[in-house]
Amino acid sequence: MYHSERYGTITVRVGETPEEALERDDKKLEQYPLAPITLSEEGGTITLPERALRYVSLECDKGAEITSLRFDASLWPVEHQMQFETDDDYVNNLFKMSSATLHTSMHRFYLDGVKRDFLPWSMDALVSTLAGDYLFGDQQVSKNGISIALMPLDPQKSDIGIPDYPLHALFGLKQNYLRFGDLTTSLQYKDRIIQLLDFYASIVDENGFVHGNYGDRQFGYTPGWSTYNGPVRKGVAAYAQIMLYYNYVTGAYFADLWKESALADRYRKLARNLKKKIFEHFWDDDRKVFINGTMNDNVTMDKRISHHAQYWGILADIFPKEHYDSLFENVLPNLPNYYEVVSYEKGYEFLAYAKAGRIKELWDHIYGVFGDWMDQGHTRFPENFMMNASRARQLVFYNRPYGLSLCHGANGVPVVVGALNGLIGFSQSSMKTNEYTIKPELLHLKWIHSRIPVKEGYIVLKLNAEGESTIDIPAGCTVRIIKKIGKKPLVLREQGGYSFRLKD
Q1: pLDDT per residue over 275-289, tens digit each?
Q2: Which residue among 158, 315, 343, 410 has the highest number of C-beta atoms inside a 10 angstrom radius?
Q3: β-bridge partners, 301
Q4: How far apart are CA 428 and CA 421, in angstroms?
């Protein structure tokens, strides 16, 4: 509402930061500028078109009195299913910030930046399900992400943009099946799943490797848009071959569920052969890690090390466990700019940290990167992390001064993974999908209270570092509790409440 005595016009500028809302050069803005609004002597109400904003500046050329100002937010209608609280408010606030980031990014899909793109991207959408499926349980949003990740029917090389992005689809399909227990989704997309895997098998080279260059419109490899340490875009990237291996294994997994034994055997054979070639070409036996792959000429070896192949190796169960210590204690911490240039795939990566039992390292990383953003006063996690950079540099994205979108769904995932799969130690059996494991690692925390949605209902936990802990489990599942100190896991098979101690 406004009142004006001298007519004139009012100019409204919006932004996600004060700097953007105060910018006077319209060419630098990320959204089309609004035309000046002509005021009337009688006053009235001004309703602006929908914008992605957190700040607004109002400038009147002749003066006016604003009597009220209201923002209406549009949120996807979901309820929070997962609950998580600890005795440490800093951890609690990180979790709340992650949840808010994902929720703000939900608009039928998990979006890539609610301001700059407002588009679903296959990698972002599917890594978001690692947290969103537990926070909100909106299966349709996850399925929408799967649908855009899969290649179209009868895929051609001309359909390839970023060559590894369609390889996220089967990861999302398996996550969907485990979380919701519904084979229908994979059956709905069965033809496209088979065609995707057969298409990749048809375009690989003599070693079974997929390349980064299949035509003029091919963008090349961009793992999480974090390639400071490589790999190069148009060569043969080791991480992509590991993803392809994981896809073959997952294809065999679904083929078994579909009772298609010949199909399962074919994918298992492709997986075995590819795994052999991956180690022959990309495993560095001196440093006990995977190298990047090849350079753009597909011949010269790129012997640099980046984190991508390592965490995909852990997720795909091919990174040798006996070399975990070296990887997490010597290799990753010493990668140049590993903490400063942050990948959008941190949700996947931190899932690998949790799988490897590296919970302290996971949370040290969270505090340094995600905690840094929260400490600056923000309430959502952005598209681009640039630690130790100037304020102006942090706001730049794609070389545009305000290109950064301060809400990026995929970057809401790491803290949730750190809580669910790290501190609580939650995991689920792929072969017996009604069997769950809780392996707590509370670190400095005195207690954790949590509710975890599973396909059978809710697992409710009250974990105490000292004294009694409790758990309530729904009917139809088995829960194994692995204590930090103790010989045998506690195996619970019946619905009801139980008490136990984390320390014997």
Answers
A1: 999 999 999 999 999
A2: 410
A3: 294
A4: 10
